């Protein structure tokens, strides 16, 4: 069996001991906001574009820093389909609000793991282990 790998980028935004997670229309689980890069885009360019589309904020390129890679079973995909999410942190201008395919933005912590996709849960567990969220 060949493993299919979906490569994505995501933004980790922290506030008051919680992390911003999003849910798409017609989905039940939350995941880290971001998406796939388009041909020729750098990680930073793709992240800026996706976050602008999904959350209507403009990332400040000089503040983008790599946080970590997380890999796990992709939500809603065939077994064996893995998603690798390269997570970044960044400052931004504007106010976070759901747009495009995003139905809901929520601030989550370790008590919300059942509401998260597998990889979002891994990210939350890592943030907790680093004492960045509750």
From TrEMBL:
SUPFAM superfamilies: Nudix
Pfam families: NUDIX
Cofactor: Mg(2+)
Signal peptide span: none
Keywords: Hydrolase, Magnesium, Metal-binding
Organism in which the protein naturally occurs: Morganella psychrotolerans
One GO term describing the cellular component: cytoplasm
The keyword Transferase belongs to this UniProt entry's keyword annotation: no
Family label: Belongs to the Nudix hydrolase family.
Single Gene Ontology MF annotation: metal ion binding
Keyword Glycoprotein among UniProt keywords: no
InterPro entries: NUDIX_hydrolase-like_dom_sf (IPR015797), NUDIX_hydrolase_CS (IPR020084), NUDIX_hydrolase_dom (IPR000086)
Protein name: NUDIX hydrolase
Any GO BP annotation: DNA protection
Segments forming domain Nudix hydrolase: 1-132
């Amino acid at each position: 069996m060949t493993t299919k790998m979906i490569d994505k980028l995501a933004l980790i935004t922290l506030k008051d001991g919680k992390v911003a997670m999003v849910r798409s229309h017609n989905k039940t689980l939350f995941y880290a906001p971001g998406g796939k890069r388009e041909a020729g885009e750098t990680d930073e360019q793709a992240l800026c574009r996706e976050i602008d589309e999904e959350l209507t904020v403009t990332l400040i390129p000089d503040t983008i820093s790599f946080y970590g890679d997380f890999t796990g079973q992709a939500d809603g995909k065939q077994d064996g389909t893995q998603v690798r999410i390269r997570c970044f942190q960044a400052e931004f201008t504007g106010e976070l609000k759901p747009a495009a395919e995003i139905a809901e933005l929520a601030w989550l912590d370790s008590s919300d793991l059942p509401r998260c996709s597998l990889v979002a849960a891994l990210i939350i567990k890592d943030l907790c282990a680093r004492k960045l969220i509750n």
